[in-house]
Transposase
Amino acid sequence: MSKKRRTWTPEEKATIVLEILREENTLAEIAKKHEVSQQLLSRWKTEFIANMSAVFNKKNEDVDKLKQEHEDEKELLVKKIGELTLDVDWLKKKQIQISQMKKKER
């Protein structure tokens, strides 16, 4: 019988890597505790160390790009809401005018 592959959330990975970095237990003990291979833990640690400078990067391009895209989309939606509001107001006005014209014809 094969083992079901386990998936880890980024938060779980970070917690385990911090436990490795504290060096209170050996890598083998941590691997046994969390039922993860030592090679995988070493890979997570290496990846964490390689990318930890991104945490302190104030000009993180990905975050800035996402923020800009969000602002652009928000601006577009606000503009569209304004256009639709004008259309609805115009239609309401025309409906009143048409109903008044029909009353006069009777």
User: Anything to note?
Assistant: The chain has a mean pLDDT of 89.
